[in-house]
Structures are given as C-alpha cells and as structure tokens.
Design goal:
It is a single chain. This protein is an alpha/beta fold. Helix content is 31%, strand content 18%. The chain has an 8-stranded parallel beta sheet with strand order 1-8-7-6-5-4-3-2. The longest helix has 14 residues. The protein is globular, with a radius of gyration of 16 Å.
C-alpha cells in the first residue's frame, strides 16, 4: 500500500509572536498537519511548552495536530493533550517502561498513537508495539533543537521501519521522519519509505514566506 505523503510543519521554528498568522499561512499553503514539539528539559535539554499551547493552537486551525512528547513520564501528560484537541500523540520508546500500554491508552482515547526512536536506538526496540501504533517515527536528528542537519544513516532506518511494518501486516501504518527535512533530501526520504514528514526550519524561516517554503518542498517531491 502506497500512502500519500503528508507534510507536518513544526511550530518550534515559527515566530511565536505571530503564531496565529504563521499557522494560518501554513494551512493556506496546503500542509496536512501541524506538529507540536513538547520538551520538558529532562528527556531533552530544552523546555518548549505544554498542553495549554496545544489548546491555543487548536483554536487557530482546522488541521489535525500531532503532539510529539519528548518528555519523561509521558503517561502523566497524554490525557491533557488529547483533551486539548490533539489528533495524534507520539511518544518515545526510550521514555517509558510501558510503551504498549501507553499506545493503547492513546488509541482508546480516540487519538492516533505514534512511537518514535532516537537515532541511537535500535529499531528492534519497537517491534513488539507495531500492532498497536499508527505510525513509527524515525528521528533523523538528535531531538531537542530545530535546524539540525539530517543524519544520512536515517535513510536505512526508514527502509527498515517500512519493512518491519509491512512484514507484520501493518501496511496501513505510516513511517514518519522528524529532523533536518528540506528540499535537498525530501525526495530520498520519501523514496526510502517515509510518507509523513515533519519540517521545521524548512517551512518557518526568515528567508521566505511560509507559502513559498511549502511550495518549494512540494516541488522537490514532484521533481524527485
């Protein structure tokens, strides 16, 4: 099964003083999702925002929203984000002893459940939870900061994730990629098997408008 490629810009790189404007521009430009990178200062060094920001962004757009929880003890925050109107909650395999239970909890609350891995985590760590997740996300940078360079070895991990999902009968589940996605590598990323792409600084930057940035990524997909 070939799933349509979806683009999910992260507001971490947006101008928060103009957040409503920039989220609106992204929606008008035709992105598919909005991503919220939630960081607690423990699982990763920076602190970003919590469920109140999710609730605020929910008021700004009709697009589905993903909360990527880069936090310790994600079980303490899942319900708050779903109640804020989040459509997908992605947790890190490294952040909990009970990933299967948490993924089930997310799905039972009516949200899509995603699992993600840091670059140094073997993909085999998520094999047991593939039947209960809607997507496997490959971190193609070390999490915590926007604007990092894509780790080239991530392409092999994308291929492996796609193969693992297909082999266990989850052709309907997505392979997501987060980190360093831009017009120079987006074609190779999709060719490797990814179909859900988080882009931060490639969409929200001071070089161009959001519309131009999204159009540039779309053109790169078509040309490749």
């Amino acid at each position: 099964m070939t799933l349509p490629v979806q683009l999910a810009p992260s507001i971490l790189n947006a101008d928060w003083t103009r957040l409503a404007e920039q989220v609106g521009q992204a929606e008008a430009a035709g992105v598919d999702w909005i991503t919220l990178d939630v960081m607690d200062g423990n699982f990763v060094p920076p602190i970003s925002f919590g469920a109140p920001m999710a609730s605020a962004v929910r008021q700004l757009t009709a697009l589905p929203i993903e909360a990527h929880l880069m936090v310790e003890h994600p079980e303490e925050q899942i319900d708050d984000f779903i109640e804020a109107g989040i459509n997908c909650v992605t947790i890190h395999i490294e952040s909990t002893r009970h990933p299967h239970r948490l993924l089930q909890q997310i799905a039972e609350r009516g949200a899509e459940a995603g699992i993600t891995l840091n670059p140094g985590t073997p993909l085999g760590e998520v094999e047991a939870v593939l039947p209960v997740c809607g997507r496997v996300q490959i971190m193609s940078v070390n999490p915590g900061w926007g604007g990092q360079r894509f780790i080239p070895e991530s392409l092999d991990r994308i291929r492996q994730a796609r193969e693992m999902l297909d082999q266990c009968g989850r052709e309907d589940a997505r392979v997501a990629v987060d980190g360093g996605v831009n017009e120079s590598n987006i074609g190779a990323i999709v060719e490797a098997g990814a179909d859900w792409l988080v882009a931060g600084s490639a969409v929200f930057n001071d070089r161009e408008s959001v519309a131009d940035a999204v159009a540039r990524l779309r053109r790169a997909l078509v040309s490749d």
